[in-house]
Write a structure and sequence with these properties.
Pfam families: Sigma54_AID, Sigma54_CBD, Sigma54_DBD
Radius of gyration: 31 Å
GO biological process, one term: DNA-templated transcription initiation
Structural class: alpha+beta
Helix content: 40-55%
Distance between the termini: 100 Å
Shape: extended
GO molecular function: DNA binding; DNA-binding transcription activator activity; nucleotidyltransferase activity; sigma factor activity
Strand content: 5-15%
Organism: Vagococcus silagei
InterPro entries: RNA_pol_sigma_54, RNA_pol_sigma_54_core-bd, RNA_pol_sigma_54_DNA-bd, RpoN_core-bd_sf
Strand order of the largest sheet: 3-2-5-6
Number of strands: 8
Number of helices: 20
Mean pLDDT: 83
Length: about 450
């Protein structure tokens, strides 16, 4: 058998997109939110002696609430937005123990157990493991746990949701008479709304059980959550919407516009050095400044243009108190502005718009929509559909809640053509229980 091998030389033309470091950083700058952009520019200023960054703000963190305080000039008072630094749950409990209990072995055990409380206030270690680790007996350990359970907030130190509710009911003098017994003896039946068994056991009416249920709804299943420290995002709106009569206007906020300054005097001074490496270094650093300055201006212009396009589509949001949104896709805005869809995506993520009634992420102005079978070209925002479902459920007879199919029928009367499965999906997304769990047993 013969083997042959032929060697030939061919020329092939291919096209590839090569992303330079500058192009990658330019895309990255567009994707940054304002705070990340500030950090990025400050780092560049540290690396490049020819760049000076002037930031419009000196604060380091502000609240992410949608209601921002303003002064008489209409400018946002960002300093008053700095979140309070509250004690953690751990610190709060330690303070109570040192204040209320004298130095004993029992107090030491209580301090030991506090280290095993999770952020919601629940004991995250079993009694058996705690006994083994602390090298004590179970009775003493449970006594120490009881010391924790009588501290504030009510419910802390619980080992289950049932125990958490019982600890809160135990302290509340206004709790319904049978609330403690029902939660203690019939917790599963109560939670699963098998109330007939409970009513029969205590010889009470279903409306009496309903009263207990309404009361329990106001108890906290996570007593320690109030103390949980979340990392507050530093939000500075990029755009400001002004409403005058029936006109909308949009501009960039000065708080979101850092300034880059070129250190010309330092550049001219260093340029006098008769050293090739120094001159090359200065040339590279100057080019970096020019690129950063250009990219910063381009970033601001792109966000502003996209914001203006959004306003043209979502005008009703700013004039109608119900804040309706029409379905809008990023590719529509990309076509109008003359950029790629990915550019729109980067420009709206983490960028915020401030208006007289709140602060909103630009991404929130792109609600999904669903086509209506009766009108193939018509789309209705899912937010509008959800509002309609909520309205129907709010107005239903609570003693005879509407099934998902009944909701479908009522939606059809209002020209919303949805399947029962879709209604169920939206209802669950709204956190609304099924008809069986919405039923109330109030007395007439």
């Amino acid at each position: 058998m013969k083997f042959g091998q032929q060697i030939s030389q061919t020329q092939k033309q291919t096209q590839k997109l090569v992303m330079t470091t500058q192009l990658q950083q330019s895309i990255q700058m567009l994707q940054f939110n304002t705070v990340d952009l500030f950090s990025f520019l400050e780092q560049k200023a540290l690396e490049n002696p020819l760049i000076e960054v002037e930031l419009p703000l000196e604060t380091t963190s502000i609240s992410t609430t949608k209601s921002n305080q303003t002064d008489s000039s209409g400018e946002v008072d960002w300093v008053n937005q700095i979140p309070d630094q509250d004690d953690s749950l751990f610190d709060f409990l330690i303070q109570q123990i040192h204040l209320n209990y004298r130095q004993t072995d029992l107090r030491d055990l209580a301090l030991f157990l506090i280290e095993y409380l999770d952020s919601n206030g629940y004991l995250s270690i079993s009694v058996e493991d705690a006994v083994r680790l602390s090298q004590t007996n179970e009775t003493k350990l449970l006594d120490a746990l009881r010391l924790i359970q009588i501290l504030e907030p009510a419910g802390v130190g619980a080992r289950s949701l049932q125990e958490c509710l019982l600890l809160q009911i135990e302290r509340d003098e206004t709790s319904p008479n049978l609330a403690y017994l029902i939660i203690e003896e019939y917790f599963d039946e109560f939670a699963n709304r098998k109330w007939e068994k409970i009513a029969k056991a205590y010889q009470i009416s279903l409306s009496d059980v309903q009263i207990v249920f309404d009361y329990v709804q106001h108890l906290s299943p996570f007593p320690g959550a109030h103390f949980s420290k979340t990392d507050e995002q530093f939000i500075i709106p990029d755009l400001l919407v002004m409403i005058q009569e029936d006109q909308l206007s949009l501009r960039r906020t000065k708080e979101a516009q850092p300034r880059l300054t070129f250190q010309k005097h330092y550049f001219e001074q260093m340029k006098q050095a008769d050293d090739y490496e120094v001159k090359k270094y200065l040339k590279d650093r100057k080019e970096e400044y020019e690129w950063l300055h250009k990219s910063l201006l381009q970033r601001g212009d792109t966000i502003l243009k996209i914001g203006e396009a959004i306003l043209r589509h979502q005008q009703n949001f700013f004039f109608d108190t119900k804040r309706p949104l029409v379905p809008l896709q990023m590719k529509q805005i990309a076509k109008e502005v003359g950029v790629h869809e990915s550019t729109v995506s980067r420009s709206v993520n983490g960028k915020y718009l401030q208006c007289p009634f709140g602060v909103y992420e630009l991404k929130s102005f792109f609600p999904t929509g669903m086509k209506q079978p009766a009108h193939s070209d018509e789309e209705i925002a899912t937010a509008e559909i959800k509002r309609e479902i909520m309205k129907i459920i709010e107005n239903e007879n609570k003693r005879k809640p509407l099934s998902d199919q009944k909701i479908v029928e009522q939606l059809k009367e209002n020209s919303f053509n949805l399947s029962r499965r879709t209604v169920a999906k939206y209802r669950e997304a709204l956190g609304i229980a099924s008809s069986a769990k919405r039923k109330r047993y109030d007395e007439n």
